[in-house]
Specification:
Elements: E1 24-30, E2 36-37, E3 43-45, E4 54-60, E5 64-68, E6 72-75, E7 85-94, E8 98-101, E9 105-107, E10 111-122, E11 135-137, E12 140-143
Antiparallel strand pairs: 1-4, 2-3, 3-10, 4-10, 5-9, 5-12, 6-11, 7-8, 7-10
């Protein structure tokens, strides 16, 4: 009779790796903000009484920087010939809390939130806003 050989088991290992990239998505939920004048006509702002901020929903994995660009596509009445300083700002609630600022902010954690975007035009000295329509565009950025 012959001898019986015992077969040894074959084994293999599998290494798993993964990576979550820093991502951010923005969805404008109110793209029609309203600026109103101050009583002395020296500011025109979405922060003034009766004004409304623009709003943007944010979803992120974290590790991103949130900010607003300078106001662009500025339109003002032809009778307004004095300089205006336009200052965009934003606040964030939800995934992180950021008080009203014009500076970039880091969002470290994953989650969702709401960005309130404001714009303020300011006249200096005795200058003031004149009768007519004003408009501008503010771009919100969320980047890894």
């Amino acid at each position: 009779m012959g001898s019986c050989a015992v077969a040894s088991a074959a084994v293999g290992t599998i290494n798993f790796t993964g990576n979550v990239a820093a991502t951010c998505s923005l969805s404008v939920t109110n793209g029609s903000a309203i600026m109103t004048p101050s009583s002395n006509l020296q500011t025109l702002s979405s922060k003034n009484g009766g004004g409304t901020a623009g709003t943007v929903a944010v979803t992120t994995t974290g590790g991103v920087v949130l900010g607003v660009d300078a106001a662009s596509s500025l339109i003002q009445p032809t009778g307004d010939v004095t300089a205006t300083t336009w200052t965009p700002s934003y606040s964030l609630s939800g995934v992180s809390t950021v008080s009203d600022t014009s500076l970039p902010s880091t969002i470290s954690s994953p989650g969702t939130g709401t960005i309130n975007v404001n714009l303020t035009g300011t006249k200096s000295g005795i200058n003031s806003f004149v009768t007519g329509s004003y408009s501008a565009v503010v771009t919100v950025r969320c980047e890894p």
